[in-house]
Amino acid sequence: MRSPSSRGLDPWEFVFVTDKALLTELATAKPQHAHFLRDAALGIVVLGNEAVADTWIEDCSIATIIVQLACTSLGLGSCWVQIYRREYGPGISAEQRVRQIVRAPENLRVLSIVSIGHPARYPAPHTVESLDFTKIKTNTYN
Q: What is the CATH number of domain 6-123?
């Protein structure tokens, strides 16, 4: 709720899902890529109101990553499930399916779901040696 947003318009809303049946349904909203939601302790559906701000995607993305940073600070694991512009099946988007599951109004867009819980494993962080510092430029691109 304290995430920054363009012009302070805060176009986000969140649905906190703890019900196992709903988490299982959400796990199928993006076939083959959200199965781990079934075992999550919490799923946070991140919704944006494009009528409030034309920057709803950016603002909700910032809010999503802040949720993930908060999870890390609490020793929890999290995973971003991209929903916006993804398919559920023929004739229905993942966004439409998630909206059906959580009964979100049509005027709200679904950006993502954050799966939260105690991780089964702790992957090693990127080493300094693996970072591509050529992607950083100073003052100008060239």
A: 3.40.109.10
